């Protein structure tokens, strides 16, 4: 079951540190993400949430520590082994990062064409299924410039899911969206997690989203340069004694 | 999910009464679906009744479900057997529901005449936009003449540096080589008439009047026109141009004028550099033919007039203005998305080169009429 301690860890981060030009973003970050849960990385602006995500998907090499995804060390991996691992994760980028000169259906076809030998007809059908899953069946032939921000994020999720990866990473899914669209996206994430059993790692600072979708979370802090809390977000909100965590969940100005 | 399905899927095809029975076994993922697709499709075509035995399927992903549903469609009907209720069945149902949903309606294609009309209208609108842009730039330029202190001079300097100073090396190299090649090529037929001494006349006049300005303009169109289009195009795509307009700032005066001014000012300099480097290249060839430098200079002094040089440099300034206008217009008129920026840069270079050749033709007629 999602979030229960019995579920195996699909991602293991151990003593991770990120440094740029000698400046430490965070260090001593250690946590597990378990199969089937929606795991939220939260924190204020500039605390290194997106940096942590980029470490986890292998874009940045860790200064210290290690990251293991589905039992494979992510850092230092290259060649065919890296591609094999990347096929099994999907990433939705903050702005969607859809390819501007291709339609939504073609966007989803890219990983399918690159990583499978499916005939064009099958790729097209898979793309339609994925767009249907995120409620964009009617927009298959449209270009990214012709759709709204919320649609671009959903299309980004559809593309991330093209190869049915067991783990999806979402970077700020609700940033820049109106509350209704944002709530719709949260519902979509919950539904996908429930229906597909996909593990989600979500970076966000939207309080409502965190409480709506998160099974478990960790909180990063800029001052502490690392993790300051870990656990069920609802319990953190109600029980945490850390002033920063309390201020975050209660939208207070930190004294 | 290849990891959760270590057993590769297999397909067993058997006759089943009048129809066929396709038994799948193992993990039916994207790789397996791709592998089994042609064989399964052949086996299912027009078969009735078709039975899909899924009792041995241990894993299924979207691509696998798509294969099964496509087989069903190929045979018009199929009976699914053996799939236990659970996540696999749920995935199959979900995929079926998504595929059954009607897709977007295709746009009705216009008849031939309609397409011609549409294309004509688009062209006409584009041309009208060009004229309007020319008018706007002219007005902004007149405004700047009345209040020159309002022009962004640091910006003009930056563009002078980028379009001019940084192109000096390339221009000198190309000019030198062109002078060298021109002199060398013409020396072969000239030698037959013993007329090598007239090579400076030929190279000098063709460089100063035509080739110098033209080649410098081609360099400017490639280096600077495209850069203008890409920079302004990116700003258009990022809504920066709209932001300027909303701040009450005229993007023509703010962005276009400094660029136009820089392109216009820099072109005579580049053309002059091109000319001088070309003459130097020619002198080198003359030297190898046995003519000392002083003979070359004398020949040039006697036959090449100041009006050749000034006419060429005036043309160069005109070319610079045209390239700047075409480049800025392409950038500001860019559509949306990354492809729009590329299109704008292409339009700037192609449009720039076409316009300078056209202008060159016009000025040839003009200079002839004026008796230059």
Automatic annotation (TrEMBL), chain A:
Keywords: ATP-binding, Nucleotide-binding, Transport. It comes from the Bacteria. InterPro entries: AAA+_ATPase (IPR003593), ABC_transporter-like_ATP-bd (IPR003439), ABC_transporter-like_CS (IPR017871), P-loop_NTPase (IPR027417). GO terms for molecular function: ATP binding; ATP hydrolysis activity. Residues 11-249 form the ABC transporter domain. This is ATP-binding cassette domain-containing protein. It comes from Dankookia rubra.
